[in-house]
């Protein structure tokens, strides 16, 4: 089965990890610091806090933003459930804004109609690797005193208006799952523009531990002293994983280039095919394509999915609208809330896309899909 996504692991990656195994630190050591500094360089110089997954990154970011009971988080339903559920776990009410009909990115006009003085965070998702319209979202959030959050699990290395992902919103979360644009096996990171928010993120992911003597409430202890002022969790990434991530970061530009080449090959080969709609792209955006999401028209998505899989092509569907999940249905969310997202979901099919995919394999995907259609 040709997978729809797959990690790319080099001998240099393996050597980077084994070098840590031969050293003195396995976790919370100098390689974590080096990885976070390298991430900071990539995302506009803002502080980056590594963590155990993209889901953990979202939980950390919402906690650092002060999200709690009584707050609202406005987000998109066209995403993996964690974008919403990590806010729900903190007691927030999640408000789903519909997406743009063509890009499946959160629609700023829909957000504008939904924000209130209870809105704490406006969370966009860079679906498929295409950055959302943060230039439009930021003033909406600013108007009600909210922060913007970019769920950039799909888009590390991308640009919008010449600015890197990580510099587009107040907070940015990254994912380093194996199928993502770079991997640490499992892992993620939070990027925060505000140093105070970044420090809260760091402390939350470090079990709440605080080691700043100027903030201590207990005095006259020894140099070992540390305090917890707010509850946190152990979301720390290891030196082993950060060594892997550092090695992967050196290859990120090449990964992005190959993903762009594959996307262009799909675009050229599938243009004008009946029963098919290709991904949209906004001017001024340089996506770090994570998915290649086509739309299968005429109510044939399930048929095409099953026939592609039977032909050995590992297509996928991304994603069921979040509020369709029973956990949200049980809270009173109902189908029909976001018609554009639901129409997109009914047709979406992700074709294989990963750096080691060959041109011959791309052509095999194209020929199989056209044959089925």
Short description:
Pfam families: DegT_DnrJ_EryC1. The protein is α/β, with parallel strands linked by helices and 373 residues long.
Description:
This protein has 373 residues and is α/β, with parallel strands linked by helices. It folds into 2 domains: 239 residues, Aspartate Aminotransferase, domain 2; 121 residues, Alpha-Beta Complex (Aspartate Aminotransferase, domain 1), CATH 3.90.1150. 37% of the residues lie in helices and 15% in strands. The chain contains 13 helices and 15 strands. The strands form 4 sheets. The protein has a 7-stranded mixed beta sheet. The chain has a 3-stranded antiparallel beta sheet with strand order 7-6-13, with no helix packed on it. Strand 4, helix 6 and strand 5 form a beta-alpha-beta unit. Helix 1 packs antiparallel against helix 8, helix 2 packs parallel to helix 8 and helix 3 crosses helix 7. The chain starts with 10 loop residues before the first helix and ends with a helix. The mean pLDDT is 97. It is an enzyme of class 2 (transferase). Its cofactor is pyridoxal 5'-phosphate. Its EC number is 2.6.1.92.
Question: What is the β-strand count?
Answer: 15
**Arrangement of strands in the largest sheet:** 1-9-8-5-4-2-3
Q: Report the mean per-residue pLDDT as an integer.
A: 97
Q: CATH H level of the largest domain: which superfamily?
A: Type I PLP-dependent aspartate aminotransferase-like (Major domain)
Q: Mind telling me the CATH class of the largest domain?
A: Alpha Beta
**Fraction of residues in β-strands:** 15-25%
* Helix/strand order, N-terminal first: HHEHEHEHEHEEEEEHEEHHEEEHHHEH
Helix content: 25-40%
CATH topology-level fold name of the largest domain: Aspartate Aminotransferase, domain 2
Structural class: alpha/beta
Number of helices: 13
Distance between the termini: 20 Å
How many domain regions?
2
Instruction: Give me the CATH architecture of the largest domain, please.
Output: 3-Layer(aba) Sandwich
Largest sheet properties? 7 strands, mixed
**Radius of gyration over C-alpha positions, nearest whole angstrom:** 21 Å
Q: Overall 3D geometry?
A: globular
Low-confidence runs of at least 5 consecutive residues? none
